[in-house]
Amino acid sequence: MPRMSFTASEEAAFNPSSSEHRSMSPVLLSRARSMAAEHTELSKAMATDFDTRTAKRIGELSAVTNALGRWEEASSTLHELNSLLEDPHTDDELRSLATEDIASSSTKLTNASQALASSLIPRHPFAHMPCLIEIRPGAGGGEAALFARDLLRMYRAFCSRRRLRASLLRYDDTEGTSGNSGSDAPLQEAILEVGAAGSYGELRCEAGVHRVQRVPATESKGRTHTSAASVLVLPSLPTNGSDDEDELSWDDPSSDYYVDPKDVRTDIMRARGAGGQHVNTTDSAVRLTHEPTGTVVSMQDSRSQPKNRELAWRLLRSRLAQARREAREEEMLRMRRSLVGVARMGRGDKVRTYNWSQQRVTDHRSGLTVHHLDDVMEGGEALEKIMGSVRAWMVERELEALIGEEESKSSVR
Protein backbone atom coordinates (compact mmCIF):
# COMPACT_ATOMS: atom_id res chain seq x y z
CA MET A 1 0.00 0.00 0.00
CA PRO A 2 1.51 3.38 -0.98
CA ARG A 3 2.30 5.84 1.78
CA MET A 4 -0.43 8.44 2.32
CA SER A 5 0.38 12.10 1.71
CA PHE A 6 -0.94 14.76 4.10
CA THR A 7 -1.23 18.52 3.91
CA ALA A 8 1.01 20.76 6.01
CA SER A 9 -1.91 21.64 8.31
CA GLU A 10 -2.71 17.96 8.81
CA GLU A 11 0.91 17.15 9.62
CA ALA A 12 1.14 20.03 12.10
CA ALA A 13 -1.93 18.86 13.93
CA PHE A 14 -0.46 15.52 14.96
CA ASN A 15 3.29 16.13 14.77
CA PRO A 16 4.50 17.46 18.16
CA SER A 17 7.84 18.60 16.72
CA SER A 18 6.04 21.01 14.42
CA SER A 19 4.48 22.97 17.28
CA GLU A 20 6.26 26.02 18.53
CA HIS A 21 8.62 25.66 21.46
CA ARG A 22 7.23 26.54 24.85
CA SER A 23 9.47 26.84 27.90
CA MET A 24 9.11 24.27 30.64
CA SER A 25 6.47 25.17 33.19
CA PRO A 26 8.14 26.17 36.49
CA VAL A 27 5.66 24.11 38.53
CA LEU A 28 6.32 21.01 36.41
CA LEU A 29 10.06 21.58 36.70
CA SER A 30 9.70 21.84 40.47
CA ARG A 31 7.71 18.61 40.54
CA ALA A 32 10.35 16.83 38.43
CA ARG A 33 13.17 17.96 40.71
CA SER A 34 11.25 16.84 43.77
CA MET A 35 10.73 13.39 42.23
CA ALA A 36 14.40 13.19 41.24
CA ALA A 37 15.40 14.02 44.82
CA GLU A 38 13.13 11.25 46.08
CA HIS A 39 14.75 8.87 43.58
CA THR A 40 18.20 9.74 44.96
CA GLU A 41 17.14 9.24 48.59
CA LEU A 42 15.45 5.90 47.91
CA SER A 43 18.43 4.67 45.89
CA LYS A 44 20.72 5.39 48.84
CA ALA A 45 18.36 3.54 51.18
CA MET A 46 18.23 0.56 48.82
CA ALA A 47 22.02 0.26 48.91
CA THR A 48 21.85 -0.97 52.50
CA ASP A 49 18.35 -2.44 52.80
CA PHE A 50 16.51 -3.99 49.82
CA ASP A 51 12.75 -3.58 49.80
CA THR A 52 10.38 -4.63 47.00
CA ARG A 53 8.06 -1.64 47.33
CA THR A 54 10.99 0.77 47.39
CA ALA A 55 12.45 -0.88 44.30
CA LYS A 56 9.11 -0.50 42.52
CA ARG A 57 8.93 3.17 43.46
CA ILE A 58 12.50 3.74 42.23
CA GLY A 59 11.49 2.23 38.91
CA GLU A 60 8.50 4.58 38.70
CA LEU A 61 10.73 7.60 39.37
CA SER A 62 13.51 6.57 36.96
CA ALA A 63 11.79 7.86 33.81
CA VAL A 64 11.33 11.33 35.32
CA THR A 65 14.87 11.38 36.73
CA ASN A 66 16.42 10.42 33.38
CA ALA A 67 14.25 12.89 31.46
CA LEU A 68 15.18 15.66 33.90
CA GLY A 69 18.88 14.88 33.40
CA ARG A 70 18.53 15.20 29.62
CA TRP A 71 16.55 18.44 30.00
CA GLU A 72 19.15 19.99 32.31
CA GLU A 73 21.96 19.00 29.94
CA ALA A 74 20.15 20.52 26.93
CA SER A 75 19.23 23.64 28.91
CA SER A 76 22.82 24.11 30.11
CA THR A 77 24.18 23.72 26.57
CA LEU A 78 21.77 26.29 25.16
CA HIS A 79 22.52 28.69 28.01
CA GLU A 80 26.26 28.45 27.33
CA LEU A 81 25.76 29.10 23.61
CA ASN A 82 23.59 32.15 24.30
CA SER A 83 26.18 33.45 26.76
CA LEU A 84 28.87 33.19 24.10
CA LEU A 85 26.73 35.09 21.59
CA GLU A 86 25.90 37.82 24.13
CA ASP A 87 29.51 38.23 25.27
CA PRO A 88 31.12 41.08 23.28
CA HIS A 89 34.58 39.56 23.88
CA THR A 90 33.78 36.27 22.06
CA ASP A 91 36.04 35.93 19.00
CA ASP A 92 34.49 35.62 15.54
CA GLU A 93 35.34 31.94 15.02
CA LEU A 94 33.78 30.88 18.32
CA ARG A 95 30.75 33.09 17.67
CA SER A 96 30.29 31.41 14.27
CA LEU A 97 30.43 27.94 15.81
CA ALA A 98 27.93 28.95 18.49
CA THR A 99 25.55 30.32 15.86
CA GLU A 100 25.72 27.03 13.94
CA ASP A 101 24.96 24.97 17.06
CA ILE A 102 22.20 27.05 18.56
CA ALA A 103 19.42 25.82 16.24
CA SER A 104 20.09 22.13 16.91
CA SER A 105 20.49 22.83 20.63
CA SER A 106 17.13 24.63 20.70
CA THR A 107 15.53 21.61 19.04
CA LYS A 108 17.12 19.28 21.58
CA LEU A 109 15.79 21.41 24.44
CA THR A 110 12.29 21.45 22.92
CA ASN A 111 12.33 17.66 22.58
CA ALA A 112 13.73 17.27 26.09
CA SER A 113 10.98 19.56 27.46
CA GLN A 114 8.29 17.49 25.76
CA ALA A 115 9.81 14.24 27.03
CA LEU A 116 10.11 15.57 30.59
CA ALA A 117 6.54 16.85 30.63
CA SER A 118 5.22 13.53 29.30
CA SER A 119 7.18 11.56 31.90
CA LEU A 120 5.42 13.51 34.68
CA ILE A 121 1.97 12.33 33.63
CA PRO A 122 0.90 9.44 35.89
CA ARG A 123 0.66 6.21 33.94
CA HIS A 124 -2.90 5.07 33.37
CA PRO A 125 -3.44 1.92 35.48
CA PHE A 126 -4.92 0.05 32.50
CA ALA A 127 -2.45 1.29 29.87
CA HIS A 128 -0.38 -1.90 29.79
CA MET A 129 -3.38 -4.20 29.36
CA PRO A 130 -5.08 -5.73 26.34
CA CYS A 131 -8.48 -4.24 25.62
CA LEU A 132 -12.08 -4.94 24.66
CA ILE A 133 -13.77 -2.73 22.07
CA GLU A 134 -17.57 -2.68 22.36
CA ILE A 135 -19.46 -1.27 19.38
CA ARG A 136 -23.20 -0.54 19.29
CA PRO A 137 -25.40 1.44 16.88
CA GLY A 138 -26.85 4.70 18.16
CA ALA A 139 -29.30 7.16 16.64
CA GLY A 140 -30.10 6.52 13.00
CA GLY A 141 -31.89 3.17 12.81
CA GLY A 142 -30.68 0.74 10.16
CA GLU A 143 -28.03 3.10 8.83
CA ALA A 144 -26.52 3.32 12.34
CA ALA A 145 -26.33 -0.48 12.47
CA LEU A 146 -24.56 -0.53 9.11
CA PHE A 147 -22.09 2.12 10.28
CA ALA A 148 -21.44 0.14 13.48
CA ARG A 149 -20.54 -2.84 11.29
CA ASP A 150 -18.22 -0.58 9.25
CA LEU A 151 -16.46 0.55 12.44
CA LEU A 152 -15.93 -3.05 13.51
CA ARG A 153 -14.36 -3.82 10.13
CA MET A 154 -12.20 -0.69 10.47
CA TYR A 155 -10.79 -1.78 13.83
CA ARG A 156 -10.24 -5.35 12.66
CA ALA A 157 -8.37 -4.04 9.61
CA PHE A 158 -6.30 -1.73 11.82
CA CYS A 159 -5.34 -4.64 14.08
CA SER A 160 -4.48 -6.82 11.08
CA ARG A 161 -2.30 -4.08 9.60
CA ARG A 162 -0.52 -3.57 12.91
CA ARG A 163 -0.26 -7.33 13.52
CA LEU A 164 -2.25 -7.04 16.74
CA ARG A 165 -4.03 -10.26 17.69
CA ALA A 166 -7.77 -9.55 17.62
CA SER A 167 -10.74 -11.88 18.05
CA LEU A 168 -14.51 -11.44 18.20
CA LEU A 169 -15.91 -12.35 21.62
CA ARG A 170 -19.45 -11.43 20.64
CA TYR A 171 -21.33 -10.53 17.47
CA ASP A 172 -25.09 -9.94 17.36
CA ASP A 173 -26.65 -8.68 14.13
CA THR A 174 -30.07 -7.19 13.47
CA GLU A 175 -31.31 -10.48 12.03
CA GLY A 176 -30.97 -12.22 15.39
CA THR A 177 -27.77 -14.13 14.57
CA SER A 178 -25.26 -14.47 17.39
CA GLY A 179 -21.77 -15.85 17.30
CA ASN A 180 -18.12 -14.91 17.15
CA SER A 181 -17.54 -15.14 13.40
CA GLY A 182 -19.47 -12.04 12.26
CA SER A 183 -21.86 -11.64 9.33
CA ASP A 184 -22.77 -9.21 6.55
CA ALA A 185 -25.99 -8.12 8.28
CA PRO A 186 -26.20 -4.75 10.11
CA LEU A 187 -24.59 -4.90 13.53
CA GLN A 188 -26.52 -4.84 16.80
CA GLU A 189 -23.60 -5.34 19.18
CA ALA A 190 -20.01 -6.52 18.88
CA ILE A 191 -17.15 -7.06 21.33
CA LEU A 192 -13.69 -7.22 19.82
CA GLU A 193 -10.80 -8.32 22.02
CA VAL A 194 -7.36 -6.94 21.12
CA GLY A 195 -4.99 -9.27 22.91
CA ALA A 196 -1.74 -7.34 22.56
CA ALA A 197 -0.27 -5.91 25.75
CA GLY A 198 -0.60 -2.13 25.81
CA SER A 199 -3.48 -2.05 23.34
CA TYR A 200 -5.73 -0.34 25.91
CA GLY A 201 -3.28 2.54 26.15
CA GLU A 202 -3.14 2.78 22.37
CA LEU A 203 -6.87 2.44 21.62
CA ARG A 204 -8.62 4.10 24.55
CA CYS A 205 -8.62 7.29 22.47
CA GLU A 206 -11.35 5.68 20.32
CA ALA A 207 -14.00 5.69 23.05
CA GLY A 208 -17.01 7.92 22.40
CA VAL A 209 -19.75 8.57 19.88
CA HIS A 210 -18.71 8.30 16.22
CA ARG A 211 -20.98 10.17 13.79
CA VAL A 212 -21.45 9.36 10.10
CA GLN A 213 -22.88 11.60 7.38
CA ARG A 214 -23.67 9.78 4.13
CA VAL A 215 -26.42 8.81 1.69
CA PRO A 216 -27.85 5.41 2.67
CA ALA A 217 -28.18 2.77 -0.03
CA THR A 218 -31.95 2.81 0.51
CA GLU A 219 -32.26 6.60 0.05
CA SER A 220 -33.97 7.20 -3.30
CA LYS A 221 -33.71 11.01 -3.29
CA GLY A 222 -29.99 11.19 -2.55
CA ARG A 223 -30.38 12.94 0.79
CA THR A 224 -27.56 12.77 3.33
CA HIS A 225 -28.48 11.14 6.64
CA THR A 226 -26.71 11.54 9.95
CA SER A 227 -26.29 8.47 12.14
CA ALA A 228 -24.06 7.45 15.03
CA ALA A 229 -22.47 4.49 16.75
CA SER A 230 -20.93 4.26 20.20
CA VAL A 231 -17.51 2.80 20.91
CA LEU A 232 -16.52 1.75 24.42
CA VAL A 233 -12.95 0.68 25.19
CA LEU A 234 -12.45 -1.48 28.29
CA PRO A 235 -9.38 -3.14 29.81
CA SER A 236 -9.30 -6.87 29.07
CA LEU A 237 -8.58 -8.53 32.36
CA PRO A 238 -6.88 -11.91 32.81
CA THR A 239 -8.98 -14.86 33.91
CA ASN A 240 -7.43 -14.86 37.38
CA GLY A 241 -6.00 -12.06 39.48
CA SER A 242 -2.24 -11.54 39.49
CA ASP A 243 -0.21 -11.75 42.66
CA ASP A 244 2.48 -9.55 41.13
CA GLU A 245 0.38 -6.40 40.98
CA ASP A 246 -1.72 -5.16 43.87
CA GLU A 247 -4.23 -3.59 41.50
CA LEU A 248 -4.99 -6.95 39.87
CA SER A 249 -6.09 -8.72 43.04
CA TRP A 250 -9.51 -10.31 42.67
CA ASP A 251 -9.72 -10.74 46.47
CA ASP A 252 -8.85 -7.23 47.65
CA PRO A 253 -12.07 -5.21 48.23
CA SER A 254 -10.11 -1.99 47.56
CA SER A 255 -9.09 -3.20 44.09
CA ASP A 256 -10.91 -1.95 41.00
CA TYR A 257 -11.21 -5.57 39.90
CA TYR A 258 -12.84 -6.95 43.04
CA VAL A 259 -16.39 -8.24 42.60
CA ASP A 260 -18.19 -9.82 45.54
CA PRO A 261 -19.81 -13.02 44.20
CA LYS A 262 -22.70 -12.47 46.62
CA ASP A 263 -23.56 -9.28 44.71
CA VAL A 264 -23.88 -11.11 41.38
CA ARG A 265 -27.00 -12.99 40.31
CA THR A 266 -26.39 -15.73 37.75
CA ASP A 267 -29.10 -16.84 35.34
CA ILE A 268 -28.67 -19.85 33.06
CA MET A 269 -30.85 -20.04 29.97
CA ARG A 270 -31.04 -21.49 26.52
CA ALA A 271 -29.21 -19.73 23.73
CA ARG A 272 -31.42 -17.66 21.44
CA GLY A 273 -31.03 -16.58 17.84
CA ALA A 274 -31.16 -17.86 14.31
CA GLY A 275 -29.52 -21.12 13.27
CA GLY A 276 -27.01 -23.35 14.99
CA GLN A 277 -27.63 -26.81 16.42
CA HIS A 278 -27.08 -25.69 20.00
CA VAL A 279 -29.58 -22.81 19.84
CA ASN A 280 -32.71 -23.42 21.95
CA THR A 281 -31.54 -26.96 22.78
CA THR A 282 -28.98 -26.58 25.59
CA ASP A 283 -28.78 -24.36 28.67
CA SER A 284 -25.49 -22.75 27.60
CA ALA A 285 -26.29 -19.02 27.79
CA VAL A 286 -25.19 -17.14 30.93
CA ARG A 287 -26.44 -13.81 32.24
CA LEU A 288 -24.76 -12.05 35.17
CA THR A 289 -26.39 -9.17 37.03
CA HIS A 290 -24.33 -7.03 39.42
CA GLU A 291 -27.17 -6.00 41.68
CA PRO A 292 -25.55 -2.99 43.44
CA THR A 293 -24.96 -1.21 40.10
CA GLY A 294 -27.52 -2.91 37.85
CA THR A 295 -24.77 -3.88 35.39
CA VAL A 296 -25.91 -6.81 33.23
CA VAL A 297 -23.69 -9.01 31.08
CA SER A 298 -24.95 -11.89 28.95
CA MET A 299 -22.94 -14.33 26.87
CA GLN A 300 -24.13 -17.12 24.61
CA ASP A 301 -21.58 -17.20 21.80
CA SER A 302 -19.97 -20.47 22.89
CA ARG A 303 -21.70 -23.84 23.01
CA SER A 304 -20.03 -24.39 26.39
CA GLN A 305 -21.75 -22.99 29.46
CA PRO A 306 -18.45 -22.82 31.45
CA LYS A 307 -16.83 -20.89 28.58
CA ASN A 308 -19.75 -18.46 28.44
CA ARG A 309 -19.59 -18.06 32.23
CA GLU A 310 -15.85 -17.31 32.07
CA LEU A 311 -16.28 -14.73 29.32
CA ALA A 312 -19.24 -13.12 31.11
CA TRP A 313 -17.24 -12.76 34.33
CA ARG A 314 -14.30 -11.22 32.44
CA LEU A 315 -16.59 -8.70 30.79
CA LEU A 316 -18.37 -7.89 34.06
CA ARG A 317 -15.07 -7.26 35.85
CA SER A 318 -13.88 -5.07 32.95
CA ARG A 319 -17.04 -2.95 32.93
CA LEU A 320 -17.06 -2.48 36.70
CA ALA A 321 -13.33 -1.68 36.81
CA GLN A 322 -13.77 0.90 34.04
CA ALA A 323 -16.80 2.43 35.78
CA ARG A 324 -14.92 2.72 39.08
CA ARG A 325 -11.93 4.30 37.37
CA GLU A 326 -14.15 6.76 35.50
CA ALA A 327 -15.97 7.68 38.73
CA ARG A 328 -12.65 8.61 40.35
CA GLU A 329 -11.55 10.52 37.26
CA GLU A 330 -14.84 12.41 37.20
CA GLU A 331 -14.45 13.34 40.86
CA MET A 332 -10.90 14.54 40.19
CA LEU A 333 -12.15 16.41 37.12
CA ARG A 334 -14.73 18.31 39.18
CA MET A 335 -11.96 19.39 41.54
CA ARG A 336 -9.71 20.40 38.63
CA ARG A 337 -12.46 22.39 36.94
CA SER A 338 -12.95 24.41 40.10
CA LEU A 339 -9.25 25.26 39.93
CA VAL A 340 -8.33 25.68 36.27
CA GLY A 341 -11.43 25.01 34.17
CA VAL A 342 -9.95 21.96 32.45
CA ALA A 343 -12.29 20.50 29.82
CA ARG A 344 -12.67 16.81 29.01
CA MET A 345 -14.73 14.86 26.53
CA GLY A 346 -16.27 11.72 27.95
CA ARG A 347 -17.30 8.54 26.24
CA GLY A 348 -20.80 9.93 25.68
CA ASP A 349 -19.57 12.93 23.67
CA LYS A 350 -19.39 13.09 19.88
CA VAL A 351 -15.71 12.51 19.24
CA ARG A 352 -15.42 12.07 15.46
CA THR A 353 -17.36 12.69 12.24
CA TYR A 354 -17.05 10.64 9.05
CA ASN A 355 -18.41 12.53 6.02
CA TRP A 356 -18.71 10.36 2.91
CA SER A 357 -19.52 13.05 0.35
CA GLN A 358 -16.47 15.12 1.32
CA GLN A 359 -14.26 12.08 1.95
CA ARG A 360 -13.52 13.78 5.25
CA VAL A 361 -12.86 12.57 8.79
CA THR A 362 -12.73 15.17 11.58
CA ASP A 363 -11.79 14.43 15.18
CA HIS A 364 -13.50 16.95 17.45
CA ARG A 365 -10.98 16.60 20.28
CA SER A 366 -7.67 17.17 18.53
CA GLY A 367 -9.25 19.24 15.75
CA LEU A 368 -7.49 17.18 13.07
CA THR A 369 -9.26 16.81 9.70
CA VAL A 370 -8.05 14.41 7.01
CA HIS A 371 -9.52 13.84 3.55
CA HIS A 372 -8.56 10.19 3.29
CA LEU A 373 -11.79 8.56 4.45
CA ASP A 374 -11.26 5.33 2.50
CA ASP A 375 -7.86 4.82 4.10
CA VAL A 376 -9.34 5.53 7.54
CA MET A 377 -12.08 2.92 7.04
CA GLU A 378 -9.44 0.43 5.87
CA GLY A 379 -7.59 0.90 9.17
CA GLY A 380 -4.70 2.54 7.35
CA GLU A 381 -2.12 5.20 8.03
CA ALA A 382 -4.71 7.99 8.10
CA LEU A 383 -6.53 6.32 11.01
CA GLU A 384 -3.25 5.88 12.83
CA LYS A 385 -2.48 9.59 12.37
CA ILE A 386 -5.87 10.54 13.80
CA MET A 387 -5.32 8.29 16.80
CA GLY A 388 -1.90 9.84 17.34
CA SER A 389 -3.38 13.34 17.29
CA VAL A 390 -5.95 12.36 19.92
CA ARG A 391 -3.32 10.80 22.17
CA ALA A 392 -1.32 14.05 21.89
CA TRP A 393 -4.50 15.97 22.78
CA MET A 394 -4.99 13.74 25.82
CA VAL A 395 -1.42 14.42 26.95
CA GLU A 396 -2.01 18.18 26.66
CA ARG A 397 -5.15 17.90 28.80
CA GLU A 398 -3.32 15.84 31.40
CA LEU A 399 -0.53 18.40 31.55
CA GLU A 400 -3.01 21.25 31.99
CA ALA A 401 -4.59 19.36 34.87
CA LEU A 402 -1.19 18.56 36.38
CA ILE A 403 -0.12 22.21 36.23
CA GLY A 404 -3.41 23.24 37.86
CA GLU A 405 -2.92 20.75 40.69
CA GLU A 406 0.67 21.84 41.33
CA GLU A 407 -0.30 25.53 41.30
CA SER A 408 -3.12 24.87 43.76
CA LYS A 409 -0.70 23.05 46.08
CA SER A 410 1.72 25.98 45.89
CA SER A 411 -1.01 28.47 46.78
CA VAL A 412 -2.01 26.43 49.84
CA ARG A 413 1.55 26.24 51.21
Kindly summarize this structure in a few lines.
This protein has 9 helices and 12 strands. By secondary structure, the chain is α+β, with helices and mostly antiparallel strands.
**In DSSP terms, counting alpha (H) and pi (I) runs of 4 or more, how many helices?**
9
Side-by-side strand order of the widest sheet: 3-2-4-1-6-5-10-11-12
Helical residue percent?
40-55%
As residue ranges, the low-confidence spans are 7-22, 241-247, 335-347
Order of helices and strands: HHHHEHEEEHEEEEEHEEEHH
Q: Which value, in Å, is the CA radius of gyration?
A: 26 Å
Give me the secondary-structure category: alpha+beta
Distance linking N and C termini: 58 Å
Q: Care to count the β-strands?
A: 12
Strand content: 15-25%
Chain-averaged pLDDT: 82
Shape: globular
Quaternary state of this entry equals single chain
Largest sheet geometry? 9 strands, mixed
Which key features would you list for this structure?
17% strand, 413 residues, alpha+beta, 3-stranded antiparallel sheet, globular
Structural notes for this entry:
The protein is an alpha+beta fold and about 425 residues long. Helices cover about 45% and strands about 15% of the residues. The protein has 9 helices and 12 strands. The strands form 2 sheets. A 9-stranded mixed beta sheet has the order 3-2-4-1-6-5-10-11-12. The protein has a 3-stranded antiparallel beta sheet with strand order 7-8-9, with helices on one face. The longest helix is centred in the C-terminal third of the chain and has 36 residues, at about 305-340.
SSE arrangement:
Blueprint: H1 8-14, H2 26-48, H3 52-86, H4 92-120, E1 131-137, H5 141-161, E2 166-173, E3 178-179, E4 187-194, H6 199-203, E5 208-214, E6 225-235, E7 264-269, E8 285-290, E9 295-299, H7 305-340, E10 350-355, E11 360-363, E12 369-370, H8 373-377, H9 381-412
Parallel strand pairs: 5-10
Antiparallel strand pairs: 1-4, 1-6, 2-3, 2-4, 5-6, 7-8, 8-9, 10-11, 11-12
Helix pairs in contact: 2-3, 3-4, 7-9
